[in-house]
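Researcher: Last one for today. Full complex below.
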Amino acid sequence: MITLSETPLDVQQIIQAATRLQAGAINAFIGTVRDNAKGKQVLRLEYEAYESMAVAEIQKIVDAAAAKWPLQAYAISHRVGVLEPGDVAVVVAVSTPHRADSFAACQYIIDTLKETVPIWKKEVLEDGEEWISAHP
Amino acid sequence: MNTNMKKYTVLAFGIAKDILGGRQCEIELPGNTVSALRTALVGQYPALAGLRSLLIAVNSEYAEDGVLLEERDEIALIPPVSGG
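Model: Here's the assembly. Have a good evening.
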């Protein structure tokens, strides 16, 4: 399951979607909005996505993960829209027969997602705003 | 009229949307490669040159510089991504 959502993520439901009886390990990464950046207070993050391509790129990452580790199931959801500190921005949940593979696959998926998937966030601080990573 | 001119519709996201002044723009150029399109866009919107990277996607796939464009392609300007 791969989704982009304009409404708050239901972490338990995403983990459930990655659960399989034949898997002894479920690993979930939950990315949340920090309340601070560069020593300043974060008011909100504004996420946007090139949705059709974002879903396709996440699928490619999952396919690559499935070629490296014995994934039994996966569920990945990313928020779009305006998020406030404490909100969940992304959940990656995977299940594998044993735990080591679940840690490795989950880390690979979130690390690669951050590098290649066309999703952007604008950070709004108390004294200004910027698109994250846009400039050198 | 220069019949070699091709008109492309380009979607823009993130900071590229701010620089172009909208979610999509049309651009005409005398070429049909990804690199020709990028050169034309940077010429028209110099602030694009200041970005850490500027990729172009064609029909939802990242495209190398030499990829050929068709006027009906869905073309998107992909500034540095920052999901997660």
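Residues 34-44 of chain B form the longest helix (11 residues). The interface with chain A takes residues 11, 13-15, 18, 50-52, 57, 60-61, 76, 78-84 of chain B (CB under 8 Å).
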